[in-house]
Amino acid sequence: MQIQPYLFFNGRCEEALNFYQKAIGARVTVLMRFKDAPPAPKEASPQDCGPAAVAPEKIMHANVQIGETQIMASDGMNDGKPEFKGFSLSINAPSDEEAERIFAALGDGGRVQMSLGPTFFASRFGMVADRFGVMWMVIVPLPDIG
């Protein structure tokens, strides 16, 4: 069994995908736009797929590969500003230097929640909300804890 995050960006999905490609080497493996979907049944309304359903160029569904993890994303299923509350995506960096790079890249245009630095459980750990509001925890676990 696998659990995969599905993030809804309310019209900013393509911008987010481009940002993650540049910042952390994300790779888009699937991208479907609303215009590519078959016509909805007559009894369904455009609002059934969220507000982006009326904008054909918006992203209906995307799969994004980040390292060994797949995240799914869309423009639909939101009614206003996207709010990412109650969870965080955690990314393990292979070195302190890479953690510093990732943290800075994700924080570009975002907000640092906890500065990146050494802790009792990691050589580097920090929390940052990116420019889309997604919370990230960047960590280089200590070898005996990892």
From TrEMBL:
Pfam families: 3-dmu-9_3-mt
Gene3D superfamilies xref list: 2,3-Dihydroxybiphenyl 1,2-Dioxygenase, domain 1
TM stretches of this protein: none
Domain PhnB-like: 2-139
Protein known as: VOC family protein
